[in-house]
TrEMBL record:
Residues 137-198 are annotated as: Disordered. Gene3D superfamilies: High mobility group box domain. Keywords: DNA-binding, Nucleus. GO terms for cellular component: nucleus. Residues 65-145 bind DNA. InterPro entries: HMG_box_dom, HMG_box_dom_sf. The keyword Zinc does not apply. The keyword DNA-binding applies. It comes from Dentiscutata erythropus. This is 11228_t:CDS:1. Residues 65-145 form the HMG box domain. GO terms for molecular function: DNA binding. Residues 137-146, 161-175, 184-197 have a biased composition (Basic and acidic residues).
Length: 215
């Protein structure tokens, strides 16, 4: 049975997308030149940035050192900081009466538009910086691991973590989905429906009732 989506919810999401695009366009129309200056500043700052400035050694609530920022996060973080420092962040939100919970969402949409339209050479600057930041992290935290490892469960009934579980499960599923009696076409094997009927005969009593229901 297929579940149809709520029409009102679909229309509401569609209206939110239209509203978001229109606000972003209006922000660019009014503050485009100032935002462009912020982008140029962030780009120049990246050319001479020190990787150590982006390494966060303070542990989070889980007792782990945060992951180093990737290229997109470096660009977004510096862009947001500069917008706030110049007072543009507050000015944009007040001018267009953007509510608190939507402010960061709109600013991220602004920054992403610049990121998506950026030249490859400029993006490579942030990618190189991100690689240097990761190397700096490894120097400062020798036991740092880029990939999170799954926490070992204390439940004795839970099987140990297997990193290849998904691939094995996928293979088992594909193998089990094919009936074992369906071999090569040149073999004279029983028809699947016939085999199914014979199995039902073993489970159902009387078998004639099954035939009546089927008819």
């Amino acid at each position: 049975m297929s579940i149809l989506p709520d029409v009102n919810m679909v229309l509401q999401n569609f209206d939110l997308q239209i509203e978001e695009v229109s606000i972003v366009d209006m922000v660019f129309q009014k503050f485009g030149l100032q935002i462009e200056e912020v982008k140029n500043f962030v780009l120049e700052q990246c050319r001479s940035a020190k990787p150590s400035d982006y390494v966060e050694l303070k542990k989070n609530r889980y007792g782990r050192v945060p992951r180093p920022l990737n290229s997109w996060m470096i660009f977004k973080t510096d862009f947001h900081k500069k917008l706030t420092k110049e007072g543009l962040y507050k000015k944009i939100c007040n001018t267009f009466n953007i509510p608190g919970k939507e402010r960061l969402h709109i600013v991220v949409a602004l920054v992403k538009r610049y990121w998506d339209g950026m030249d490859k050479d400029d993006k490579d600057l942030f990618k190189k910086l991100a690689n240097k930041v990761e190397e700096e992290m490894k120097k400062r935290v020798p036991d740092y691991k880029g990939k999170r490892t799954r926490k070992i469960s204390k439940n004795p009934f839970r099987p140990p973590y297997d990193p290849d579980y998904r691939e094995k499960r996928k293979k088992e599923t594909s193998d089990s989905s094919r009936p074992p009696y369906m071999l090569r076409s040149d073999k004279k094997e029983p028809h699947p429906k016939k085999m199914q009927d014979e199995n039902l005969y073993l489970l159902c009593e009387p078998y004639s009732s099954y035939l009546e229901l089927e008819l």
